[in-house]
Amino acid sequence: MSLRVKRGVWIALLLAGCTTVGPDYREPQVAVPTSYIEPSAIGEAQLDQWWRGFGDAQLTGLVERALKQNLDIEMAAARIREARAMEHAAGASGSPQVAAETSVTRQRISENAIPAPPGSGGGGGSGFGLPGQEFTTWRAGFDAAWEIDLFGRNRREREAAAARTGAAIWNRRDAEVTVAAEVAGAYLRLRTLQGRIANAGAEVARLQRFEQLVDARTRGGLVSGQDLEQQRSERSAAAAGIPVLQAQAKAEIHALGVLTGQAPDALVNQLAAPAELAPSPPVPPGLPSELLRRRPDIRAAERELAAATADIGVVVADLYPRISLTAAPALVSTALGSLLDWGSRSFTAGAALDWPLFDGGRRRANIAVRNARQEQAMIAYRKAVLTALQDVEDALGRVDGDRRQLAELEQARATAARAEEIARTRYRGGLVTLSDVLQAQQRRLSLEEQLIETRGALARDTVALVKALGGGWQENGL
Description:
Shape: elongated
CATH class of the largest domain: Mainly Alpha
CATH architecture of the largest domain: Up-down Bundle
Number of helices: 10
Radius of gyration: 39 Å
Number of domains: 2
Order of helices and strands: HHHEEHHHHHEEEEHH
CATH superfamily of the largest domain: Outer membrane efflux proteins (OEP)
Distance between the termini: 57 Å
């Protein structure tokens, strides 16, 4: 058989052997309900910039500032850059590797030794030196190596690295969802606390007026001093709760400062003045199947599963032969002036076959490890889907409960306000005492407190629903 025919046979065999071992990834199919159990609004919500639905300019500004400056998001962006660099490194591993090499070596041959080739200690020269001779060897050349990816090891490495880059991108988007929800939650808690502080101040003022009434009746001998002391105690107890609420409000302002990438006290002046809590917008959840494409944590888990699947192919390829080609052309001379002469050329070329025969089961164990990791990634993906469905159902239930409670409280507050107005009218006509008016006012203020808390709960649960639906990230070309 001629040399050309033999070469063609080897090429055909190599091409026939070029395959990619390990399982090919297929996106998992997870069964989800056709609709949610909890009642919900009908329609399609705008989830990309959901915070604008509250109609609060300060809330919008804080969320958008946080999305640009939050340190958790910046860290997630740095992880994307790391993953992309690793993806590039994985792609480069399958390319030929070429390195330039130059050297100069000074050598002396022992007078008591057998004559040896000049440069035998690493000079790479030719010819024999004499005992006691000294000489310099100059060398300039290249070292090249290429491992032929017969069984797809490098391809699987690139596939895994690309999947992990995708996971890093989705993790950053998940960070955006979390940060937007945390900013909105802190802001809504702040406004709720400020509303409670104002209502508590009104309650203290009511108790002060009632205390003045009791004081006048005590001086008139109509009641004992014990009644006055009891009233003073109630007023002091009500006033004592205000500093606690103020401290909680300051803590929320500090949290907003850090969430927006600033010092804790950076927003004190901007947010210290109370503002009315914005009404919560309705958020239609859509279909459960949309969670699979909308929730960043589910998308990240899916990419991690793809990477774990590709990792199996990397270790399976270790069971098969690895063929590498090497070449080292160079110019070698004992005189610098003749280094570029045609006669100074030197080269080595070779091919190596590395085929593991026995390793005590180490490679098989590595395959078992990667299979187990893929199984874990699959379980993590399924858990992410179930957790997302639970998050939405829980949030829908809380929002529905908040709305029904709010409706009942608003009706009760309206009734209490009418009762207070009747008491005031009768007091002006001399039919009831001021005590009756203050008691009616106390009932209304108590309902106002419950309304403030329920409105805040509805707003926060609305944010939780949007977060559960995966709202807050945008296609930003990451």
